[in-house]
Amino acid sequence: MKKKTISATMASTQFDDILRRVDCDQEHLIIEQEGIPVVVILPFADYEYFLAQTQRHAEETVQTDLSSAGVQNQSGNRLSDFLDEIHATMPDVPEEDVQKDIEEAIAAIRSQPKS
């Protein structure tokens, strides 16, 4: 594969020659406008290959994401099961009492002198 850079002006004045170079010589032409790459002209077979590679990469990414989500879901389920087991062994205490105990514990810690 040959890669060449040409100006937009040259591309517009020599378009027939550009098509021949891309088709026959299998060149990849980068068209610049004011020195900035704007467009690439490449053989259609290379374009199809690029699309296939992009699609395959996208499918692999989706598979990886799904696998990762499955692992996270399993971890979440295990955590939920663990918490359910812990809650089953805890005494039945009203939420207000628990909140009061938490607030008292925080107040006690805050009232201790700092070292």
Concise account of the structure shown:
By secondary structure, this protein is of the alpha+beta class.
Keywords:
115 residues; alpha+beta; three-stranded mixed beta sheet; 4 helices; elongated
Set down the secondary structure blueprint.
Blueprint: E1 2-7, H1 8-13, H2 15-25, E2 27-33, E3 36-41, H3 44-89, H4 95-111
Parallel strand pairs: 1-2
Antiparallel strand pairs: 2-3
Any overview of this molecule?
With 115 residues, the chain is of the alpha+beta class. The protein is 70% helix and 17% strand. The protein has helices spanning 8-13, 15-25, 44-89, 95-111; strands at 2-7, 27-33, 36-41. The protein is elongated and about 85 Å long.
Mean pLDDT: 85
Q: How many helices?
A: 4
The largest β sheet comes out as: 3 strands, mixed
Instruction: Pick out the low-confidence regions.
Output: none
Total count of strands: 3
What is the N-to-C succession of helices and strands? EHHEEHH
Portion in strands: 15-25%
Helix content percent band:
55-70%
Class by SSE composition: alpha+beta
Give the overall silhouette: elongated
Cα(first) to Cα(last) distance is 71 Å
The strands making up the biggest β-sheet line up spatially as 1-2-3
- Radius of gyration based on Cα positions: 33 Å
